[in-house]
Amino acid sequence: MKHVGIYIFLSLFITVTIIRGNEKEITPDSIPEFFLQQQNIFPQEKIYVQTDKSNYLVGDTIWFRAFLVDACMHTLSTLSNFVYADLLDPHNRLVDRIKIIKENGIFQGYLDLPEDLHSGDYRLCVYTRYMYKEQKEYLFQKKLTIDNYISMRYSVESVFKSGDKKGELIADLHFKEFNNGKSIIPDKVEFYEKEDKVRQVPTVQDGHFVFKLEDTPPENMLHFQYTIGGRTQGQYIYIPASKKDYDVSFFPEGGELPGGTQSRIAFKALNTDGLGEDIRGVVLNSLGDTVVKEFRSLHLGMGIIRFFYDPSLSYYMVCWNRQGLKKEYTLPSVTPNACTLSAYWRKDNLYISINKDSRNTTNKPLYLTILCRGKILYSKRWEKYWEDGNSLRFSQRSFPTGVLQLLLTDENNLPLSERLVFSLNKGEKTVVNFQTNKKYYSSREQVKAKIEVLDQQNIPLSTTLSVSVTDPNVVRMDTGMNILSTLLLTSELKGYIESPAYYFSGDYAEKQEELDALLLTQGWSRYKIAEVLQGKAGIPGSSPETFQQIKGMLYQGISQNKPAPNYPVRLFATASEKFVESETQENGSFCFDNILFADGTIFVVQGSTPKGKSQVLLEVEKDSLGITVNPFPLAVREPEREWIQAETEKKIQILSQGDIARTYQLGEVEVTASRIKKRPFFYMSKSPYSSEFNKSISGKDLINRYHPGSVMEMLQHLTGVSIWRDGPTVYPYIPSENPFNAIPPPRAYLLMDNVPIDANELNALMPQYIAEMEVVKGGRIATMGANGVAGAILITTSMLPVDQKVVSPTNIQTIAPIGYQVIKEFYSPKYEAKEQKNYSQRDNRSTLYWSPDVRTTESKSGEFQFYTSDQTFSPYVIVLEGLSEEGKLIYWKGEISVK
Known about the structure:
Blueprint: H1 2-22, H2 31-41, E1 45-51, E2 55-57, E3 61-70, E4 82-88, E5 94-101, E6 107-112, E7 120-127, H3 129-134, E8 140-147, H4 149-153, E9 154-162, E10 169-177, E11 188-192, E12 198-200, E13 209-213, E14 221-228, E15 231-238, E16 246-252, E17 261-271, E18 279-285, E19 290-296, E20 302-309, E21 315-321, E22 326-330, E23 339-346, E24 349-356, E25 367-372, E26 375-381, E27 392-395, E28 402-409, E29 415-423, E30 431-436, E31 446-454, E32 463-470, H5 483-488, H6 508-520, H7 529-533, E33 548-556, E34 562-563, E35 568-573, E36 579-583, E37 589-595, E38 603-607, E39 617-620, H8 638-655, H9 659-664, E40 695-698, H10 699-706, H11 711-715, E41 722-726, E42 729-733, E43 749-752, E44 755-756, E45 770-776, E46 792-797, E47 812-815, H12 834-837, E48 847-856, E49 862-867, E50 876-884, E51 889-896
Parallel strand pairs: 2-8, 43-46
Antiparallel strand pairs: 1-3, 3-6, 4-5, 4-7, 7-8, 9-10, 10-13, 11-12, 11-14, 14-15, 16-17, 17-20, 18-19, 18-21, 21-22, 23-24, 24-27, 25-26, 25-28, 28-29, 30-31, 31-49, 32-48, 32-50, 33-34, 33-37, 33-39, 35-36, 35-38, 38-47, 40-45, 41-42, 43-44, 45-46, 50-51
């Protein structure tokens, strides 16, 4: 795979060189070639992620599949072999990061949610390293709500007001029980002033907790915690804007406003929470005449106004929101001699015309280019465009489904106007046939399901799908995004789009004008169009990740600050006896790039001089992936807020009947076990040569068994170690590493806390300072070079006196870089035997079934099966998402009836 990637990018480089070397003439006829070259030189990726659900409890597992596709064709991408998934808290801090390897052609993964997570709206951010380097604005993001049982039992009514000082906020929190609305006073309430600084809030007599915030918290999220009945729960609450206001932006069709002609202007109104604000209003000219008697936004604050634009006059808008707040705005002014594109759909045809300023009398040659996802669909000279009624008509069947980019250029390939429209090719729609073996199911009964996917000609398609079956009583359906809205719309446009799935629900004809208003306010910018039109193709600065890498620098010299060229570097995995060797480049850099390793793998990286000496400085490059978030509003609209509260009450009623309630209703318990933590990148508590395959014993065990009087005496009780004594000369050796029984035997290499020491130095140590001893022999000594030819003994100390502390060597580092996640399967119980069916513990699963890889072929349906739970109040919801081999997108939602 790596060789294929190298070949692709090498060939692309050669292509760029040839193009630039030939200095091809820039003419309108060269436009298709320029765009084709750009796609070949800079292929791009898109990503969509389906999760099993959109709201979770702490302790749950987020199951997901990432659909990584070619940005142009929407077929599965062959560029990157790894995908990263970040879980970010409401303050955009990293909670967890995993790396997923492509297996069987797909990316599937999971995130286990810690029990101590605080309730709130988190973000799932998924991307490839290639996307992170080249297309940060297009990383996939999804909002996930995470609760725990305590936070679901109590509601927090919050009120925020402006304080006396500029920027100061006064917060008022009032706690109530969800089931009866009764006020409750927590034992303690604290809020986070900074990441780690917590301040307690005094209680007011009426049960309200009131406190001041000097600065607005990150992302407008108040982070606080409260204690009730000995249990403490943290929570994030959104702080709405204190001043209810809105602002309106304007976008002339085609980018500029020609005068003396009918023109269309799109507008977009956003409130102070970043959400669309519906408005109505009128348009007047500078003479006070009403030009547009009334207009209204079509959807989420977006709309279109159309009127005759007199270049000698100015125009302004007067508008009101639903609360009656009045605002006035001056509309954009005319651009002299403007020549812009105008487009509209009528039935199944797209009409495109040119809107010229009345003072523009030139009839210079103009050219129209139509693209979809960067691919040329049409590129021709526009004949006699200046004649009245000379518009171009295109059938909807001529275009693929997606965002179309219309470009108007002159004879020098200079862009004059751009217009985006959305095309829905009905011939690309897929039909999903879903069948189950029964019409209705009771509790703990097996469901057998079949899936068939057909095209519009009823021909079965080969597809790869992810499938989720959930209980709608406890799972909130994600109606904001799906695979259609993500790959066809949001991944094509810059900026935040509120509820994009809305445009793909219901009757498309009813949404077409609203979608057109959206596209008039957005822009397509995956490539720098003006440069491509001039034959200047954009070149990626990095290549897709096909294998994992470990790289760094090696330095030499007295000060260890000079690059060390052609020096040996070894990489050793502590869990095996295998190691690889490499040499530094002329600049002192090294790279191990043909490797694959799972997460948790620990490596030793060791550099040395060509003679095997350790007088070098080794620096291993840390992962360059930071946290990248393209923020989107976390505010919740009032109707959604009321729905969430109603659903939460229902969820509490259900969960309180099962084991989840029993888990979270326990009293205060003392936790004596430590939580397992991921290894840090640099893990230095032991020697880098430590391995589970080595013979080891703790110092405590040695003392308890043998009561040694010295550390040397401890060594003689190590399995596989002997002590050589010859007068004053005393040292340990390993007989198995002395095959020819040399006299005296070769000394074992002694490392204490990763630093070489002489055997005589052991006399200064007391046995109680030894935490562990470990014997290294056989193939594992290879990475030690000449020092370890006779084996080694690793000594780890604890509570070593200050004057005996040692310094780690500069030529060795132990690292645990992020590796790929090892797949685990979604667990779904089986009720095959009578005892299983009659088991008394209630089954309250929220996700009944999850599979990231259900496949259909032209000759075979996809099949899966699972058992129902004890919740049979309402039908289960099934969601299928995926794509066909040809890049057709599939989204289907249905129900499985239970009673």
